[in-house]
Amino acid sequence: MAKILVNGGAGYIGSHTIIELIEQGYEVVSIDNYVNSEPENYDRIKKITGNEIRHYDIDLCDFEKVLKVFKHEEGFDGIIHFAALKSVPESVKKPLQYFENNNQSLINTAKAIVNSGKGNLIFSSSCSVYGNLRPDQLPVSESTPTQMVESPYGYTKLMGENMLRFNALNKSFKTIALRYFNPVGAHSSGLLGELPSQGINNLIPVVTQTAAGIREELTVFGNDYNTRDGSCIRDYIHVSDIANAHVLALEYLLENRQKEYFDVYNLGSGDGVTVLEVLQTFARVNGILPSYKIGPRRAGDVEMVYSDSGKAFKNLGWKTKYDLDEMMRSAWSWQKRLLS
Ligand code: UD1
Question: I want to staple 290 with a disulfide (CB 3.0 to 4.6 A). Which of 26, 148, 210, 244 is the partner?
């Protein structure tokens, strides 16, 4: 049985991916420092899968501790590196913290892989590496060159990709960078979903919290973009579809089907949806329109981005299962569960 290390395994995408890994028969070990997650997520995973997750509560920025885990576990067959700070607006306020945390934890992980002499790496990247695109570049595919990004968060992802791309030249291990668009929604069991322990900035948890009355009102950041209703366009993708893509990417590496030492894949649904359309869909599906106002643009936002995910469909055999209605439905069920 292949042994997989999940860095950031208690986090939103990490926890959903652990479930998929367990369901496919992998042995999973997790590292997390709970900077934006909570250890109770391991209990939720156990409830869903019946499996106890062996976990190390350490900061990946501490190389000695990372090395110790790799030594104790005698290395890993695969490593999935989710662990990162991920808020676009917070990164604009604290760029150095983002550069330090996101890059150092990745460098330490990569060094530990080299040191252990085995393993393949999957790196959580983001569509933010594409920066602001022209409409004729959409849907964006991996052949579109990356360019200057709009936020420090996006820059950490671009730096991460480039570090791994250069590292691949010495052929020490193989890497896939997965460029997520906007992962949302919750597990079909209703037992697991997004649970950031820090300030919530992402649209969907803000929407569900407003619908639940935890927030009075939400702000739509800008209605003067060059889009059909003036609000930003994003490509929302169900977190369980994203999780499933990790298992497929891992198999691709473990079965040595990838020739290159570094490659990238987009993970999006292919549909561009405006912020106002998200609110309308949420209202139609769940029968509640969260109260909102229009506010100024948010620093670091791009105008529009949505994915051509043909490469993941073709090479990895990835298929998305859930549509936007289901993303909104599951996100709301999860929020209601948190209230009960
Ligand atoms: C960015 C990345 C995405 C990454 C995510 C992690 C881009 C294009 N995408 O998502 O790949 O997974 O960070 O956090 O860089 N909004 C409001 N009101 C709110 C909150 C958000 O109007 O209260 C709007 C934003 O302006 C944006 C959209 O909703 O247009 C989505 O925002 P958010 O959920 O924060 O994700 P991104 O920043 O797009």
Answer: 210
CATH of the domain at 93: 3.40.50.720
Q: How far is the CA of 28 from the centre of ligand 1 (A)?
A: 30
Identify whether 195 is part of a domain.
no
* Residue 275 in domain: no
**292 in any annotated domain:** no
Q: What share of the chain is helix, strand, coil (3-state, %, to 5)?
A: 45, 15, 40
Question: What global pTM score does this model have?
Answer: 0.96
CA angle centred on 164, ends 200 and 152, rounded to 5°: 35
Predicted confidence (pLDDT) at residue 32 exceeds the cutoff of 80: yes
**Closest to 153 (Cα-Cα) out of 189, 188, 125:** 125
Q: Which atom of ligand 1 is nearest to the CA of 179?
A: 11
How confident is the model over 122-179, as pLDDT tens digits?
999 999 999 999 999 999 999 999 988 989 999 999 999 999 999 999 999 999 999 9
Q: Is the CB of 90 under 6 A from ligand 1?
A: no
How many domains does one find in the chain? 1
Question: Helices 239-254 and 12-23: crossing angle, nearest 10°?
Answer: 60
Residue of 202, 217, 241 best suited for mutating to test ligand 1, as the one with most atoms within 8 Å of CB: 202
- Rg of the chain over all Cα atoms, to the nearest angstrom: 19
Residue 314 has pLDDT above 80, yes or no: yes
Question: Does residue 158 fall inside a structural domain?
Answer: yes
Assess whether the C-beta atom of 276 lies below 6 angstroms from ligand 1: no
CB atoms within 10 A of CB 339: 11
